[in-house]
Specification:
Structural class: alpha/beta
Number of domains: 2
Amino acid sequence: MAEPTVRTRQLGGELRRAREAAGRKGPDVAASLGWPTSKLSRIENGSLGVKPADLDALMDEVAMNDADKRDVLHAIARHGRQRGWWQTYKDTISPAYADLISLEDGAASLRSYQSTLIPGLLQTAAYARATLDALSMTSTPDEVDALVDVRIARQSVLTRREPLELWAVIHEAALHPRVKSNPRMMKEQLQWLLDRQSLPQVSIQVLPLDAGPNVGMIGSFAMLSFPETADLDVVYLEHLTSALYVEDLTEVSRYGMAFERLRAAALPFDESADLIERLKDKIR
């Protein structure tokens, strides 16, 4: 059975809720459509995509007549069927990472808080290589090379025709040099942040060391929002050996409030740029 993606889980969840709201049981709906019960079950749990004709038939069967809602579900289904460039790297990247790249590709905006690292969408190749080499403890040099290629390719969402809007709050601790043998790497990375900040769709704030206790002490997170509806926002949490997607609307909302608090506690954009410039100039 295929591993469900965030988007197929979202689609399946919406269809299941619509069926339940109509007071219909799964086996009865499947029988009316001439489907095996397992087909409907797999659609609802996100392990099976759904073709446009089947999606229309299912929505008709459960009396989902809201045209806007139907358009949203068709948009989600189309996204789930797309094949992206990242699938070339399926033997190198995990399903969870491939899911993140797919979500970035379809998202309208991304709000990111990073406490120890520069966000992946803002990294130089040299910085990406150094961090991936340290974090990917069992990867071969060739695998690290591939992961660097993937990380840099991800950044195309910032310069596409309808670019992703990125708002990054970065803790000042992540901006200080950590590789004494290669200070140029961090200097170039800080300059790259300043260059990226010049893009109209990129906003960067620095949370200063003296900001005091704040909600960012819980750790880093990224929140992706989509053009269809705010109900489909997703939070991405990365761990050493796995990743977690937060999809529950109430929990996602709490992360949204956390980001607003971090944004308010961080330096304004101009002061953030000045701090990055000063830290860069200190590197010799």
